[in-house]
Amino acid sequence: MEILQKIFKDKFAKSAFIVLAFLYLIILFADFIAPYSSTYSNRDMSYAPPSKIYTITEEGKWSLPYTYNYIREYEPALMQTIYKQDRSKKYYIKPFVKGEKYKLLGIIPCDRHLFGVRNGGYIYPLGTDINGRDVFSRLLFGGRISMTIGFLSLFIVFPIGLLYGGISGYFGGILDTIMMRFAEAIMAIPSFYLLIILAAILPSGMTSIQRFCLIVVILALIGWAGFARVVRGMVLSIKNEEFVQAEKTMGASNLRIILKHILPQTTSYVIIAMTLSVPSYILAESGLSFLGLGIQQPDASWGNMLKEAQEFTNILYRPWLLTPGFLIFIAVLSFNLLGDAIRDFLDPKSQSK
Amino acid sequence: MKKALHIIFILCIVVVFGMLVIKKDTPENAFSENYLTETENITYPAQNKNITLDGVDYLQSQAPVGKFGGELVISTIGEGPKTFNPCNTKDATSSSMAGILYDGLLTTDARTGEVIPQLAKSFEIKGTDYIITLRKGLKWTDGVPITADDVIYTYKDIVFKGLGNTSARDSMMVRGKLPELVKIDDYTVKFTTPEPFAPFLRQLTYPIVPKHYFKPHSDQGDSVFGAFLNPNTPPTQIVSNGAFKLKEYVAAQRVVFERNPDYYKVNLKNEKLPYLDKLVYLIVGDTNNEILKFEAKEVDVLGLRGSNVARYKLKEPTSDYKIYNLGPDTGTLFLVINLNNRKNAEGKYYVSPVKQKWFRNRNFRNAVDWAVDRKGMVKNIAQGVAAPLFTAESMNSIYLNKSIKGHPQDKNVSKEFLNKAGFYLKNGILYDKDGNRVEFDLYTNAGSLDRESIGVMIKQDLEDLGMKVNFKPIEFNSLVNKLSNTNDWDMVIIGLTGSPLEPHDGKNVWTSSGPLHLFNQRPQNYKNDDRYSWEVELDNIFEEGALKLSFKERKPIYDRYQQIIYEEKPIIYLYSPTRITAIRKRFKNIFPSALSGLVYNLEEIYVGDDEEKTSLGGAK
Q1: What pLDDT was estimated at residue B300?
Q2: By CB neighbour count within 10 A (0-12 exposed, 13-18 middle, 19+ buried), where does B412 fall?
Q3: B229: left (phi over 0), alpha (psi -120 to 50) or beta
Q4: I need a surface site. Which of B151, B291, B339, B356 has the fewest CB within 10 A?
Q5: What pLDDT does B1 receive?
Q6: Which of B307, B377, B456 to mutate to test the interface with A (most CBs of A within 10 A)?
């Protein structure tokens, strides 16, 4: 709680925290906020530009927000697909419209969406992709994978790293030397090549989510070593403190001392390391999906959505396909700002200000 | 002061936000780019003539006379050539590079598809005899004359013995027998096929290699020969006879060819071709990389796809390149269904018996076919630059069965087919007549936006019918392994390249014992005859079609094979992209051809003056 209070005192940390809280809130309620589901597709509207939303009519009068549908035309001389507005009918944007059915939070059946248009209108706030799927909706669903995948690895990296570093530092001596050399050997495994090999040999029967989780788990299994080394360094100094000596004389078991008395002293470092490692997994997900090793179509993730923007003409003419990149940027930046701020609060010695 | 700043800051945000939200509705200027399609009539040159000068039989190009010098840079996607040995190429890049270095006796006319003389001066067919007369006075790049011995060596010691790539030998076999070859004199050879064999003439386009240079290596067997002329060979050592010889090869970067000064083709002024001093192949990683190189003017030729076409078409009038439409692609793109009902070595079925019942049911395959939205694929994935495909022959094949008209997507027809086969729907979920839920895997290679998007569409359409489709884009090599070795797949989206001139090349796919008989792959030396009646018919067609000689006789036979595939649908064809290629305007003697592409006549292409550019500049 104290940390929260401190976060709110720091301008950067506060905005980063709010942004992240906002992002997580949105992906939690993605079904409700998104006007369409992640599998919805309108084949007549492939690569449609974002819907233009107007609040002042042609005559210059105020109006409720409305939009027009697009008509798709093909120009044979140029071999080009052109989208024109169908200005014959206005579609007003209404709150809580009925749409595709879904289960809110996975339990409550519901068919209302935060906003939308009725009677055959379409609304694509950020345009559509090659299959005519709404980019805005897919961004929200894709965020569910991209923003949570990092935490999966935390559950592997931190328990292993803490225990391993704790034991190694506490006992010291030859055990310490052996354990640390082993950790160094693990750190020397080139992760990128490992991933490329994994992509080729993993059984193809898995869904892309299962595959990706497995890849993250493997990444985590080679990623704990660096963390364990830092913990071991901290434990080396903590084990000479008086309270540890006291514990020993009282006859506590070694494991109890490590788990109950030494490791809690490293909490501040752990929290910082955790916050700072989440963004690296967000980036890893987008990088892997971008290379075709991670989440695959038709599942959405920010990385594989960004892959579509890799096409040269898409960068030039369909900038809305770049929005996942913008969100990755925002999320990673926020995590880093927050992590930095927390470090300042928890570790007064290294205060940079 | 601080408060005032805060207020101003917040006001700014509100104003910016307001500007984003409050938007006046003004009609958009409709897209009205005045674009005139110049319909330039290309006059194609007449066929090459033979001309004898100073005792040397030259081939005279009838294309307009050009200027010597300059270079042409072409890109090639992938890792570059793996060998320069024309008898040992197993991938497209290697064979096109080796094809530049080595000419064959005959070649295919780029526009008509006829077989015409190349290294041969003329050829004569008498029943099963093929008499080939070579040009006199021709030399290898090291000065040794090209004679009938080289031809005999190439066919007898390499092709017939099956050194290197054996596919040439396989296609020359008629009922297990190879043709005979005799030397008549130093410049004449005679081939005799055991039976009249239509595809044989086209086999004589096989590159001829120098006996004095190849023999020491080919004598040592396949393993030595396989490594011969690998990319590490010093370029100056390579003895060849093509229009260009190898100058430099930098791994994963570029292949540089230089003019062969002794080439046997001349222009109308009897000057020796080729015009270009240098021909460079840049090795690029992928299509995006290729496009960027073209934009940076590092590459002169660019193949365009889908949405890229519109961008380059729009910019064409003010640019330094010209775009040619070469018509439908020679390859095919399809969805293949696994009809395999055999067990693997461990006694396990490749495809589970439940699924076998679906896939081996023609009604089921028809249901899938009618649910596929080809029009949507053409519209969205190819951005209109394609046409739906229904036949096993590609759309520019001269053997295309034009009576197969295809059909639109209609899910109601699909449902009828499923009903007929005993499938039923319950709560939107499709079950077969034994009550099994219809669920299967659909694979394609990952990393290709087009194929992944096709997969997404097919998955959606089939799920509308109540099936459950697990769409899995996997790494390309794993996919190939599945198709050719493990056979543990249900449906796959993949493509094949083919020849628009010779349907017999599809033998390895369509005959039941073929190594690429994807949909019902039998192990090698498979004894049981478990062929479908239509597979038997296909086997017969491919045997019979090769033995008929005239196009008129062969056409109905190959029409029938396309009809069978269309009716039985083991392979469901999707669409055929249109090939659009851009090339810099300064290159002249460009004669686009639906069969061969744009830059097939490398020796005739020359770099023109920049006249047009300067006159344009003057006008401004």
Answers
A1: 92
A2: exposed
A3: left
A4: B356
A5: 66
A6: B307
- Chain-wide mean pLDDT for chain B? 85
Choose the closest CB to A74 out of B291, B384, B457: B384
Q: What is the pLDDT of residue A241?
A: 84
Between A and B, how many residue pairs show a Cβ–Cβ distance under 8 A? Answer: 137
User: What is the spatial distance between Cα B603 and Cα B155, in angstroms, rounded to a whole number?
Assistant: 26
Given an 8 Å threshold on Cβ–Cβ distance, is A54 in contact with B25?
A: yes
In tens, the pLDDT along A91-147 reads 888 888 888 888 887 788 888 888 888 878 888 989 898 888 999 999 999 888 888
Dihedral angle over CA of B87, B93, B97, B103, nearest 10? 50
DSSP conformation letters of B439-457: EEEEEEETT-HHHHHHHHH
Q: How far apart are CA B568 and CA B582, in angstroms?
A: 39
Residue-wise pLDDT tens digits, B282-310:
998 788 888 889 988 999 999 888 778 88
Q: Give the best residue of A62, A63, A80, A129 to mutate against chain B (max B CB count within 10 A).
A: A80
- Residue A71, Cβ neighbours under 10 Å: how many? 14
A29 CB-near residues (< 8 Å, 6+ apart): A104, A105
pLDDT score, position B21: 67
Query: Does A172 reach chain B within 8 Å, measured CB to CB?
Result: no
Residue of chain B whose Cα is closest to the Cα of A306: B449
pLDDT at B29: 58
Beta bridge partners of B281: B74, B255
Q: What is the pLDDT of residue B431?
A: 92
CA triplet A153, A159, A165: central angle to 5 degrees?
Answer: 120
Residue B615 clears pLDDT 50, i.e. is over it: no
Whether A55 and B28 lie within 8 Å, measured CB to CB: no
Compare all CA atoms of chain B with the CA of A57 and give the residue at the minimum distance.
Answer: B25
Q: Residue B25: which of A56, A82, A310 has the nearest Cβ?
A: A56
The per-residue pLDDT for B369 is: 93
Contacts of B26 in chain A (CB under 8 A): 58
Sign, CA dihedral A202-A204-A205-A210, equals positive
Q: How many CA atoms lie within 13 A of B157 on its CB side?
A: 20
Write the residue in B384, B449, B475 that is nearest to A81 by C-beta.
B384
Inter-chain CB proximity A53 and B28 less than 8 Å:
no
Please state, as a whole number, how many other Cβ atoms lie within 10 Å of the Cβ of residue B529: 8
Q: Give the tens place of pLDDT for each residue, A147-170.
A: 888 788 888 888 888 889 888 888
State the smallest CA–CA distance between residue B620 and chain A in angstroms.
Answer: 26
Enclosing H/E stretch for A287: helix A267-290
Rounded (10°) angle between helices A135-171 and A11-28: 120
Is residue A78 less than 8 Å (CB to CB) from chain B?
Answer: yes
Query: Is B449 close to A308, i.e. CB distance below 8 A?
Result: yes
State the ipTM, two decimals: 0.79
- Tell me the C-alpha distance between B117 and B109, whole Å: 9
Structure tokens at A185: 């050997």
Q: CB of A299 within 8 Å of any CB in chain B?
A: no
pLDDT for res B614: 39
Mean pLDDT, residues B89-112: 86
What is the rounded average pLDDT of the residues B596-607? Answer: 87
Q: Which residues in chain B have their CB less than 8 angstroms from residue A82's CB? A: 31
Q: What is the pLDDT of residue B370?
A: 93
Which pLDDT does position B200 carry in this prediction? 86
Q: Which of A62-66, B311-315, B411-415 has the highest mean pLDDT?
A: B411-415
* Helix (H/G/I), strand (E/B), else coil: B335: strand
Please count the residues of chain A: 353
Give chain A positions within 8 Å (CB) of B307. 47, 81, 311, 313-314, 317
Q: What is the signed CA dihedral for A276, A277, A278, A282, rounded to 10 degrees?
A: 120
